[in-house]
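Model: You mentioned two targets. I'll fold them one after the other.
Researcher: Yes, keep them separate.
Model: Target one:
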Amino acid sequence: MKNNIDQNRNWYLIDAGGATLGRISTVIATLLRGKGKVEFQFNLDCGDYVVVVNAEKVIMTGHKEEQKRYYSHSGYLGNLKTKTVTEMRKSHPTEILRHAVAGMLSNTKLKDGFLARLKLYTGENHPHANIKFIDLPKSKVK
């Protein structure tokens, strides 16, 4: 097995426009982890790079737009801050998808490496234009 430095990593381009948050998050987490590869081992970082465009256009089903909350705490007493999805879309539109993908990855030392290879962008433009991407079939990303 190659170590982390010698691995050849693929690049995937995913358009998140109109995709359901949970379904696209599972596809992204699987690609970041590298579970579809033959040489997958759970204790090694053998995943791929994932570039997501239109990350602000993911949809949520039901009443999650109004009911789902994101929490942050500074560590001081009484300093718990909450934001709804609509507030997060205005302030940090890509963090909704990043938070969902991070929740689907295991809490190990490898998690930071997985999330470092996740590139989220609002809109169609991204700075990785000179890289050859592997296209995912539309049936995988709903």
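Model: Target two:
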Amino acid sequence: MEHTTHNPPTAAAPSVCLVPDTDGSGVTLVELTPETPVKDHNAAMELAKEEARKHMDEFMLMSWYDRDRNIESPANSTETPGDELTGYVYYGINHGAKLKVDIEHGRFVFFFTPVDF
């Protein structure tokens, strides 16, 4: 499996997780490309959680996207019908996500935030 990690950029570098009008600085991007495509969303989520465990002791899944079904969570976080589904990105970043796991070039995307007890 191909595995790429991009650490959060420094102030002088462009953001690796930039969406128009959203500052994704401070978000580590991990891109995973398994040799065998993942079966479905549940398999992708397990793979993403395995990756999150490598970066955080405790974490919470903040938002996600499933291109196969064209579903984002939280549901309807992209407010304008017909717009590209990016609401899950805004939601994740604006709710403290520090890790973005991108599986198969955007087929499945997950945003995680660390949890401190």
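Researcher: Noted. Anything on target two?
Model: The beta strands are 2-6, 28-33, 59-66, 71-73, 99-103, 108-114.
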